[in-house]
Design goal:
Distance between the termini: 29 Å
CATH topology of the largest domain: Aminopeptidase
Number of strands: 17
Number of helices: 10
Radius of gyration: 24 Å
Order of helices and strands: HHEHEEEEHEHEEEHEEEHEEHEHEEH
Number of domains: 2
Largest sheet: 9 strands, mixed
Length: 401
């Protein structure tokens, strides 16, 4: 939410570069697990600027064909712009993820009334190519002679859309930063995510007995029926203001005329209260077993439960939050502290001990066919990122942890 006009920190050429880079990145399809082409484009861009980039082995461990990328840009003094010694020896992490959800149609970015959208009926990939483009534009800006008051660490993760797999595999001990930011919340710029939910993945695989559906149905045991009974017994949707449960997929059977021998459902639980999430997972497990054991089902069932991430709450007094508020206000936005129902790489980084804030990036309708982002939001995001560098330089060392 804008609270007043602010002078842009970048010129017209850099703004055109930002939009052009964003459109180019969107054209490179990079669903989770297939981020290599997008990663190579990012590596080439950074190395052309003289920025060293290192790739870890998270891909092999996290189910992707590419690892996380980490780049560092050292601080450079800008005479007269900062107090003597400001920012010395300090580093700030900025993070974006390379992957998207699967694209239902080819991605061809077009500008319509100042908004980038897909000319075809499918996602644009602004989640999270908007942030990737912003970080590349920031690297170009500070490497062109503008300099940076603090060391910058740029982290480009993989497999974020599959339970934060890349960030969860990243070795945070490699970082020098005291705190960091991701730009991965599809809401108006100005919103600062200070709380996010615990997330659990629950998979239930039912095993029945196959039989001819028209001749010997009595001899069969339908795994689909058992799964259906489980779904109707599980509480779904918004359970309370802080908690949601969803069954996202259900699949099984082999043919129309065969009593289904197998069926699998995949569910998730999210809650800002960890104990509430755990209680609902336990309830789902009970409902699944009860459904499998019903007389007209009588199926076996295998259950798998995975905690994808733990919830967190950041105090408003934390330096990572206060720097975000100062940077946003400096750019003409009213900072608004919010709790989100979505997870991000911030959840994984916080779990590893690095205070991290997820900032709204101005994108709209992420994961949907009408996903879009305005040119203005891209430019505002870049201004905020540059302001974060300036305000991070004013934080006393070691006070961020």
């Amino acid at each position: 939410m804008s609270s007043g006009a602010a002078v842009s920190r970048v010129g017209a050429l850099e703004r055109r570069y930002l939009s052009g880079t964003f459109a180019e990145l969107c054209r490179i399809e990079s669903p989770s697990g297939r981020e290599r082409r997008c990663a190579e484009r990012v590596i080439a861009e950074l190395r052309a600027l003289g920025v060293d980039v290192q790739e870890d082995d998270a891909g092999a461990r996290g189910g992707s064909g590419c690892g996380n990328l980490l780049a560092r840009i050292p601080a450079a003094e800008r005479a007269g712009q900062l107090p003597p010694g400001a920012g010395a020896g300090r580093s700030l992490l900025l993070c974006a993820h390379l992957d998207t959800v699967p694209a239902a149609a080819p991605i061809e970015p077009v500008l319509v009334d100042g908004f980038w959208e897909n000319a075809n009926e499918g996602i644009l990939g602004a989640d999270n190519k908007a942030a990737v483009a912003v970080l590349l534009a920031l690297a170009r800006h500070v490497s062109s002679g503008e300099g940076t008051p603090v060391d910058i660490e740029l982290l480009f993760t993989v497999a974020e859309e599959t339970a934060l797999a890349g960030a969860r595999e990243f070795d945070v001990s490699r970082l020098h930063s005291e705190f960091g930011y991701v730009f991965d919340h599809a809401s108006p710029i100005g919103e600062v995510v200070v709380a996010a939910p615990s997330h659990f993945r629950v998979e239930a695989s039912f095993r029945g007995i196959a039989a001819h559906a028209g001749i010997r149905p009595e001899e069969g045991r339908s795994a689909i029926l058992a799964a259906a009974r489980a779904v109707t017994a599980i509480p779904l949707g918004r359970i309370d203001p802080q908690t949601t449960v969803n069954v996202g997929t259900i699949s099984g059977g082999s043919a129309m005329n065969v009593v289904a021998e197998q069926c699998t459902l995949l569910a998730e639980v999210r809650s800002l209260e960890d104990a509430r999430a755990e209680a609902l997972v336990a309830e789902i497990i009970d409902r699944v077993h009860e459904a499998a054991n019903l007389p007209d089902c009588d199926c076996d069932v295998d259950l798998s439960v995975q905690r994808s991430c733990s919830g967190y709450r950041l105090p408003a007094s934390a330096p990572v939050v206060r720097v975000a508020e100062a940077a946003l206000a400096d750019c003409g936005h009213e900072p608004i502290l919010i709790a989100s129902g979505g997870a991000s790489d911030a959840s994984a980084l916080i779990a590893r001990g690095l205070p991290t804030v997820n900032l709204a990036n101005g994108t709209e309708h992420n994961h949907e066919p009408d996903e879009c982002v305005s040119v203005a939001a891209l430019e505002e995001m870049l201004d905020v990122a540059l302001a974060l560098l300036e305000h991070a330089a004013t934080v006393p060392p070691a006070s961020a942890r």
